[in-house]
């Protein structure tokens, strides 16, 4: 297949820059502790300095992969498929989720919300970032809001974001891994004073699994 054909298929969402895919235990948020098949899509320009998958940022380093192959692999392992990145909404997710739905699979996405929402989703984890804020539309449909707490000002940011989401959205505060020992006590105190929030931990890292 020639380069121009590949680019065209990527633009249409028929191929996606696949970084990795793996079957594991969901480590964060509402579905933590449950089995899920993760599909990590390359490409992200949000640029969080503490990102633990910076190798996902450059989409060109990850091979364009036919979504039919992604769907077939996912269907072998789990009923729940989590699309993550990078920032998956840089790409059109409609063809991929359509394929997953033909297999009666549950579609979850983890996104900063910085790009317009595409695809059909059973669960939307919105994890907003200060340097590239979400589009307004995603606040209305977010299933959970997960704010990463790196410093004290992130509590202010969290409240700003919580004011925008729908009333059914579940609110999580999660310490950034490298500063967890410093931030966990602050998060615990904050949640006890503001019980609308729930503590989220990266339990997969404690379990030493992907």
TrEMBL record:
One of its GO terms (biological process) is tRNA queuosine(34) biosynthetic process. Keywords: 4Fe-4S, Iron, Iron-sulfur, Lyase, Magnesium, Metal-binding, Queuosine biosynthesis, S-adenosyl-L-methionine. PROSITE patterns: RADICAL_SAM. Substrate binds at residues 25-27, 40, 84, 210. S-adenosyl-L-methionine binds at residues 50-52, 86, 127-129. It catalyses: 6-carboxy-5,6,7,8-tetrahydropterin + H(+) = 7-carboxy-7-carbaguanine + NH4(+). One of its GO terms (molecular function) is S-adenosyl-L-methionine binding. Residues 31-210 form the Radical SAM core domain. Its cofactor is S-adenosyl-L-methionine; [4Fe-4S] cluster; Mg(2+). [4Fe-4S] cluster binds at residues 44, 48, 51. Its EC number is 4.3.99.3. Pathway: Purine metabolism; 7-cyano-7-deazaguanine biosynthesis. Pfam families: Radical_SAM. The keyword GTP-binding does not apply. Binds 1 S-adenosyl-L-methionine per subunit. Binds 1 [4Fe-4S] cluster. The cluster is coordinated with 3 cysteines and an exchangeable S-adenosyl-L-methionine. The keyword Transmembrane does not apply. Homodimer. Belongs to the radical SAM superfamily. 7-carboxy-7-deazaguanine synthase family. Catalyzes the complex heterocyclic radical-mediated conversion of 6-carboxy-5,6,7,8-tetrahydropterin (CPH4) to 7-carboxy-7-deazaguanine (CDG), a step common to the biosynthetic pathways of all 7-deazapurine-containing compounds. This is 7-carboxy-7-deazaguanine synthase. It comes from Flagellimonas pacifica.
């Amino acid at each position: 297949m020639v380069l121009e054909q590949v680019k065209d298929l990527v633009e249409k969402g028929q191929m996606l820059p696949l970084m990795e895919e793996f079957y594991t235990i969901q480590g964060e948020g509402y579905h933590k502790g449950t089995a899920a098949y993760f599909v990590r899509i390359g490409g992200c320009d949000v640029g969080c300095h503490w990102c633990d998958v910076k190798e996902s940022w450059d989409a060109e380093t990850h091979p364009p992969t036919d979504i039919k192959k992604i769907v077939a692999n996912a269907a072998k392992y789990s009923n729940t498929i989590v699309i993550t990145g990078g920032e998956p909404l840089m790409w059109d997710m409609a063809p991929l989720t359509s394929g997953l739905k033909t297999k009666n699979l549950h579609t979850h996405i983890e996104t900063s919300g910085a790009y317009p929402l595409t695809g059909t989703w059973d669960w939307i984890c919105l994890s907003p970032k200060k340097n590239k804020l979400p589009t307004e539309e995603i606040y209305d449909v977010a299933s959970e809001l997960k704010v990463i707490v790196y410093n004290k000002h992130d509590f202010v940011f969290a409240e700003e974001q919580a004011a925008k989401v729908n009333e059914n959205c579940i609110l999580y505060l999660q310490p950034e891994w490298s500063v967890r020992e410093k931030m966990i006590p602050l998060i615990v105190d904050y949640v006890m004073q503001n019980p609308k929030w729930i503590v989220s931990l990266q339990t997969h890292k404690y379990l030493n699994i992907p």
